Amino acid sequence: MKRDYNSDIDRLGRQLADLRATLSGQAGDATGSAATYIVPRARQFARQFQKEGYGLGRAARGNPSAATAAIVGVMVLGAAVAWLLSASGREKDD
To answer: Is 71 helix (H, G, I), strand (E, B) or coil?
Structure first.
């Protein structure tokens, strides 16, 4: 008895296309949710930074070593977050 593999391949192809469409829709929904969460907070941060920018400049001039330490701390924190995100991305690929 010969089995018709073409129909199985066609069926699997259709199922794969359906799965791909479903996953694309979910990824789009997640992106939209993240954007609606992040954008207002980024705008709020920018407004707050504008209001407090002069005070931050005065504080940095008065305490240059503390300002330098704060900048280095933020850079290290950003590098750590980037490293964690890249590590989690690699785990998903494996």
So the answer is: helix
Any residues with CB less than 8 A from the CB of 39 and at least 6 apart, and which?
none
Tell me the C-alpha distance between 53 and 56, whole Å. Answer: 5
CA distance to 31, 50, 81, per residue, from 38 (Å) = 10, 18, 16
- H-state helical runs in the chain: 5-62, 64-93
Task: Check pLDDT > 70 for residue 85.
Answer: yes
- Decide: residue 93, CB within 10 A, 0-12 exposed, 13-18 middle, 19+ buried: exposed
Q: Which residue has the tokens 């794969």?
A: 16
Q: Is the pTM of this model over 0.70?
A: no
